[in-house]
Amino acid sequence: MKRLTAFSVGILIAGAAAAQLPKLDDVLKRVESLPRPSASGAAVGSGDARTDASGIKEALAVGTERAVQGLSRTDGYFANQAVKILMPSGIQKVAELARMAGYQKQVDAFVLSMNRAAEAAAPQAARFFGDAIRDMTLEDVRGILAGGDTAATEFFRRKTHDKLYAAFRPVVSTKVDEVGATRAYKDMISRYEKVPLAGSQSLDLDHYVTEKALDGLFLMVGEEEKKIRTNPLARSTELLKSVFGR
């Protein structure tokens, strides 16, 4: 019952998460007049400190929203080879034995269920990214302006990883149980350990799926950041064009 309650709360949060990312009006209201970053360090910029700070925050809001929405939909992880969660390397032998024993469907269902769990957890990220954007300091803005193609993504990883892990894991835990992943895993392990000399296998499935889900999330945020920095077509507003070029 406790696990079901946690899942229910997670679903309610996920449903509202898209509204948590800061809108441009909110971003502009919160940007203070900032000193201009040094010309030697800035890789991008309009030449106006206030515009640059606003543009960085808008780029983060746009990029994270695109990444979260893309991963939250059905097959957001499963159909994307760059972030698809695969069978843990530690139980590859278990999976191979299961396949040879006629359990291909069960193995496939196990992999699918891990990705469905990640997709269910992904909407949680919106509110944490929104908080990180709103709480950015002058030094954060300068670092992102002067950084490489994924400087903003690394900022997010530093600021949000632990909070995201804590938010993702309960949803992942409930979801994998709900779709039978844990039962399938335990069944595969049980069958494998009966094989002579196979040895004992151990895996924290919830931790594995949560970390892989976060790896995929930050990868996609990084891809969106690169697009905004390097692809004019990804600069969807005049502010982004002003800061990152046309």
TrEMBL record:
Record keywords, A-Z: Signal
Signal peptide range equals 1-19
Superkingdom, natural source: Bacteria
Protein name per the record:
DUF4197 domain-containing protein
UniProt source species? Quisquiliibacterium transsilvanicum
- Lineage of producing organism: Bacteria, Pseudomonadati, Pseudomonadota, Betaproteobacteria, Burkholderiales
